[in-house]
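re: that complex we talked abt at group meeting.

here r the seqs, copy pasted straight from the sheet so there may be weird spacing, ignore it
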Amino acid sequence: MIIKKLIEKVEGEAELNFSFKDKKIDNVDINFSFFRGVENILVGKAPQDALVITPRVCGICNHAHLIASVRAIEDGYRSVGLEVNLTKKANDIREFTLACELIQNHIKWLYLTILPQLEKLLDHPSEENYALKASYLSSIITKALAIFAGQWPHSSYAVVGGVTCDPTYVDVIQAENLIDESIKFFEQAVMGMKIETLLSMDSVLDLPKIGGDFSKVLYLLGSSGMAELGKSHDRFIVFGECLCFKIGKSIPTRVSTIDTRFVKELNQKNSFAKGVTYKDRLFEVGPLARGMISKEPIIKSLHKRYKDSLLTRIFARVYEVGLLLDYSKKILGSLDMSEPSCTFDASTQQPMSFEGVGVVEAARGSLIHKTTVKDGLVSNYEIIVPTQWNLSNGHKEEKGIAVKAMVGLTSIDEASFVFKSFDVCSVCTTQ
Amino acid sequence: MAVDKQESVKSLFTAQSAKVDTNRGDAYYEKLYAQCRARLDELKELAPLNNRMDFKESIEDEGLDRRDFLKWASATTAMLMLPASFTPLVADAAVMMNRVPVVWIELSDCAGNTEALIRSDGPKIDEIILDIISLEFNETLLAASGHQAEKQLEDAIEHFKGKYLLFVEGAVPMGMDGQYGTIGASGETFHDHLQRIAKDAAAIVAVGSCATFGGIPAAAPNPTDAKGVMDVVKGKPIINIPACPANPSNMVGVILHYVLTGSIPELDSLLRPKFAFGYRIHDNCERRAHFDAGEYVEEWGDEGAKNNFCLYKVGCKGPMTFNNCSIIRYNEGVNWPVGVGRGCIGCSEPDFWDKYAYERPMANANIKAPTGGVEKTVDEFGLGLLTAAGVGIAIHAAASAVAGKKESEKEA
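got the structure back, here u go
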């Protein structure tokens, strides 16, 4: 028996086709029926055009696209022997703005998707206006981002060799104030505890200490028995050398090194989205993967008890907000304003042919850009987004990450919630 | 610069449609004031839609100062190019925004305009306005999903037939019979979806570069044959709010204008509200003095960059781009691209990618000025709105549309 079901509100939309066997979900076919052809648009254009075009792939993680595309060009320049050395300041500013983008995304997901949907699913309505809470923190944090990046969404302030902005101390103080305001909201409204306390937690036994709105999620997941749903392949991968994350893969807890050369895209029937594998195997990307590979004690402890379940996955994303707020505050505190913003000498003869790979950790996981330039123009551009890892339909041997997480459930509503715990983004997936 | 190009640039900047009249005289404003007052009084009699929040209560709930609110109202009054005496009316209109239903659909987009809207500006004001605007349907903000969401959309267009403002985000892919973008299990194409929902809208607001002129998806080779809403929908008043993303202040501005006057704001030849697109970026740019002094950034990170010199030589398209970014900026006025030394990419102009591509300096960009000649259409749209007589309340003389008509007559 097949039931068609449309899922909306995934920054675009996806269609899920569930097949049932013995009243349980036996398979799910995920389709994205939307396509703009951004990779095709880049072909034949100047390599640097990617810095302005690729952020427009996605209104939510546009900044990650910018950083991935600038890194791809920098990598390409280096591969043909040009020196591209970023100052610590330029690198820190890119890191700071990227952290801000992740924070706003996670908070918006918590308040616009997880809380309202979970309350509805479990018939536990509240009078809270979550949309206001979502927009409160995400407005503040994107203001901090805009101080350095000019605007959000769709900033293009990163260029080969650094950044174009040259902030003053006043700018930095303004950004620090905004981060402090964000921390205050996160501590008081979201977690009901100090960030230091949150980051020092190392055991599932500490979970009851959490208050705020997030305690509602924990309570609802725990009391309904949903906490342990949504387990998948228990395999994780992180490619992006950035923020406070470590790169590598983890199966399930043994971490080892990786190389982007083993990443392969797969065409999928009936969908504009492509799947992606590493050495022909499927991996989960995103905050849970980052927590596992960076060996965050609390994530390891949750994983030990609940594996890669709904609870662990949701917790990892919200916990990451704490990590990133702490990290971004530290970056601002150590910004060396005397360094130059951009060090690349524009009079250098720019290489006419090169291949480069840029990797970054976006909100939903690793984002990879590959550019191939011939005779001064882009001849091929590939964008591999996090959602392709998490939401592919898999291949002959293995089901996709999200598909596996939904298989075996009896209710479509529960399965939809599991699906959304991956923080789905369709506009990126199909480009 | 070739003569014909110079002429076309000149005709662009001197076209009647490009002129902004910020002082229409006392008699005009007195009449407009009376009309707006009467309209607001009528709106007051209507119940808020869909149990939206009461604005006054929410101001108190949010701990928002009445003074902050009035500050915001006076800034918005100025943005709408109305005299300061209209400030109390704008404040009243903001409270009344929950009387105008808004339906928001996404087509070939990146959700960037929705993201911008929920981070719109004002000291906590527009956050509240987000809740005040009677947003009947928006995919990203709506908690419902699947068939339930589709039903909610159907209900909204049925219930508010002929009364709702339709906001469209994203381009319309026409290639492959529209199969590059389809909706839900029905498989309805974005094109058909738009036509169906546009049919009963009071007016359409195309938000962002994709919905207005096709944007990035329409960049060469335009793989999906993406088009803007105005190329596809005919016979409806259309307001274009281009830019990537569109500035949320301008989105709120258009809604406010509609609440206040019952009409669409005065538009230029590309259907952009003149209050927002009446000036070029360059006219009010914070780095303009450096342009005049011939001080330029020559390459990223040079001395010029450290001194915030003009970005013209590194490709800034401010001199050819109509938008109010240099005045209202982005993210609650915190900053804007020129502020971080990256320059304007001309994102609010038609075909901006192919014509304006940032990396090409202005002088080499071979930009052909977008010349108008659509004044007549503006006029027709103005009248169209009058006959649409939406909102179930008497629509007052569309002040700005009438003004637009007079101007086009003069020009003709």
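couple things i noticed - Residues 88-121 of chain A form the longest helix (34 residues). Chain A has a mean pLDDT of 92.
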